[in-house]
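chain below, 436 aa
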Amino acid sequence: MPWFSERATEISWDQLESLMEQTVAQARRRICERPKRVLLLPPDITRMHSGAGRLTEMLYRLLADEAEIHVIPTLGQHEPHTPEQNRQMFGSIPNERIHAHDWRNGCVEVGEVSGRFMDEATQGAADWPLPIVLNRMLMREPWDWIINIGHVVPHEVLGFANHNKNYFIGLAGKDLICAAHMAAASWGIENNLGNLITPLRACFNRAEDEYLGELPDFYVQVVLARNQQDRLVHTGVHVGDDLETYLAAARQSRDENITLFDEPLPKIVCVMQGDEFFSTWVANKSVYRTRMALADGGELVVIAPGLKRFGEQPEVDAFIRKYGYVGTPRITEQYRKNADMQDLAHATAHLMHGSSEGRFKVTYAPGHLTKAEIEGVNFSYADINDTIARYQPARCKQGWNTTSDGERFYFIPTPSAGLWSTRDKLFNRPSGFAAD
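prediction:
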C-alpha cells in the first residue's frame, strides 16, 4: 500500500511543498532516519510540464543541509541536458550534482528476465530475454535513500508512464532499451495504451522484485489533469515503495487522463511545446496519444515550434531519416534483414509506434525542419506561421474549436498529458481494458 496518497481537484504548490515534507518524514521513519547520501531520480526535460523538476528541487532543499545529494535525470536514450536546461528544469540545484545518464557506456548488467517469461507475458509476441543493464552510479554507489519522482500518465510502451520505468527505461543500457521497446512494439502500441499492467510492465515488475529489492528506494508519483480554467494542475500525489503506489496513481490517471468519444474524430490539432519537444522521437507523443481517436482518412496537425531533428542522437536521427515512418509491415520486413535495424531495435520500434499505418494523415508544422525533411520521413508538411495563423492555438481551449472560415477541429494543447480514444478502440481491442 502507498505510504500516503493525496487527491483533490487541484493541489497547490504550497500543498505540494507540505507533501514533500511529509515524504521526507515518512522516509526517515521507514528507511533511514539520518540519510547521508541521497539519489533523486526525476524525469528529463521532456516531462517539464509535470512539475517534477520543481518537486525534485523541493526535496533537494529539504535534505541539502544534512546529506550529499545527487540527481540523475532518467533520460533513457534522450539527449543529455545542457546546464541551461538543468537550471530550467531543476532551479537552484547545483549543476555539478546533476549527472547525465550514459545509456551506452555508463551501465552494468545485473541480471536477466528470461525469454521464456517474456514469451509467456507477451503471449508469443516477444520471446527474447530482457538483459537488465542499469546505470552504474545507481547500482554500484552506496545510497541511504533513492527517490523516484515522476508523472503517471497513459503511455505507449508501458500502458502508463513512470514507477519502475524510471529504472528499466530511464536508467537502462542500450541492450535493455532496445529489447524492451521492440517487445512493446511487437505486442502493439494500441494494446498498451491505458492498461495498468502490460506484458512489458509485468516483466519490469519481475525484474524489480528479483534485482532491485535491496535498494533503499521509494516513489513520488504525481497525477495531473486540466481544471475548469483549462490549466494543467496537480490532482494526485502517491508516495510509497511498492507496486500498489503505482497502481493507485495509474488508476487515478486512468480516471482523469483518458478522454473517450463515441465516434472517431476527423481532425485533431495539437501543440508540442517548443521548450520541451525538439525531436519527433518525443514529439510523436502527439501521434501515440491521439491515434485511437482519429478517424480513418482523418488528419492530425502537430504544431511543433521546437522541432529541429528526428532522433535524440545523431545515429538515431540518421536512422529515422533513412527509413521513415512507413508502417509496421514494411518496417517488420526490413527489420528481418537489416543489421542496423537489429542493432538499434528501439529506433525500429519507434518507427512502428510513430506510423499512422496509412490510416490517417500526420501533418507537422515544425519550427526548424524543412518541407523536404518532413516529407522525407513520410509525414506531411505545413508552414508553422500559416498553421498558427489558421488555428490560433493561443486562443483555443481543449475540445472543439472552429476556424474563421468554418473548419471544425478538436484541439489538444498538451497531448503528452493524456490519451484520447473512441470507446470502441479502448474497450474492444485484443488486449482488453483492465478495469480494476
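The mean pLDDT is 96. Residues 13-30 form the longest helix (18 residues).
thats it, cya
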